[in-house]
Amino acid sequence: MMTENIEKFIDELTKSLSDETFVKMTLGNYRGTDAHLQKLLIRLLETKKGTRLFFLYRQETRDTAKNFDFAEGLKIIKESLGTNFFSGHLFTLKNDFQLDIGKKGKSHLNVGKPTFKSKPDLSHNRAKKALVDQNSFYLKALGITTEAGEIRDKQQDKWRQINKFVETLGSLIDKSVLANYQKLKIVDMGSGKGYLTFAAFDFFKITRGIDVSMTGIDAREELVDLCRDIAKACDFENLEFERGLISNYELSDVNILIALHACNTATDDAIFRGIRAEADLIVVAPCCHQELRPQIKAPEFLGGILRHGVILEREAETLTDGLRALLLERSGYSTKIFEFISTEHTPKNNMIVGTRTAKKADSEKVDAQITLIKEFYGIKEQRLENLLA
Ligand SMILES: C[S@@+](CC[C@H](N)C(=O)[O-])C[C@H]1O[C@@H](n2cnc3c(N)ncnc32)[C@H](O)[C@@H]1O
Q: Is the distance from the beta carbon of residue 196 to the nearest atom of ligand 1 less than 6 Å?
């Protein structure tokens, strides 16, 4: 193979790292043995160990991340070019370099004007003005922001949701017994891709300076792996992700239980775990209410209204969340239900909040209400009620 252009490309990369003009680079045209790998995105990351090269391996259905010191990173890049990856795009403050390696080893190096005039902000330990810093690395890694820190057009709703969630959680804590706690343990059940988990951890740990430890639980291994990689890359030491089912997760010693958009009765499982662990705050945003709708046999006089599928569905949602709130109250929590973000941005927007109180609820009165409601609608069972029974 003619390696002259590859060597020149590596030289420019090495120079840009030593004179601090490196912005980012991409290795593409992958022809290695990993059937799912598509490209490798490389940028700088400020960590406790100093500035490192952050590698994001973009695969068909998931991303994985690792960071290396410059020498290790350069070695991997050198070994990969012409063996696994057959193109490289290097952005420096001086020039852009595009390397293409042909099938017979012939390569071409194109040098162009620099796309970037300044380096992106690497730090995630900065002083913040906004609740969630747009330049946070995890937002980039999760695809909410571009490399330059702009919110992607398609992610605007998610971005609003993230900010609103952090603001809401902050204000719930401020009004609770947790307001002056310097140490918080939070568990997020059904953490998914971790947008809200990362933002909440970042907010409490960095912005508020609280000693927070947080665990995200999710059934999907690939999401847990991705979140772990990103947490590691961010040096978020007490942010952990575990694979598991909410219904099996042994929860104890927790201040805040979160379950956002945990589908159908997974929300009930999460509330139950929170009640049993005596969490001070239980915050859930339910979705995919499927349990009660097929059970509802409304009295005849409501037939004309509930024959419309969409109305029946809303009624089932309202009943499910209303019953959940009553069951929380019976378990010693004061509750509120509100829309935490406008329906314009997401239809899954009801939030149920339970705050543990010293006051004991009149359980007979609550039970009587629950029984009446269930009889009225012909409801036989509800998951949270069964779990608490
Ligand atoms: C709609 S996503 C929500 C993710 C995140 N909480 C958010 O609001 O952006 C629901 C997540 O819950 C997880 N999930 C649903 N049921 C679960 C269960 N019973 N145990 C563990 N994870 C569950 C799914 O794998 C999925 O990642």
A: yes
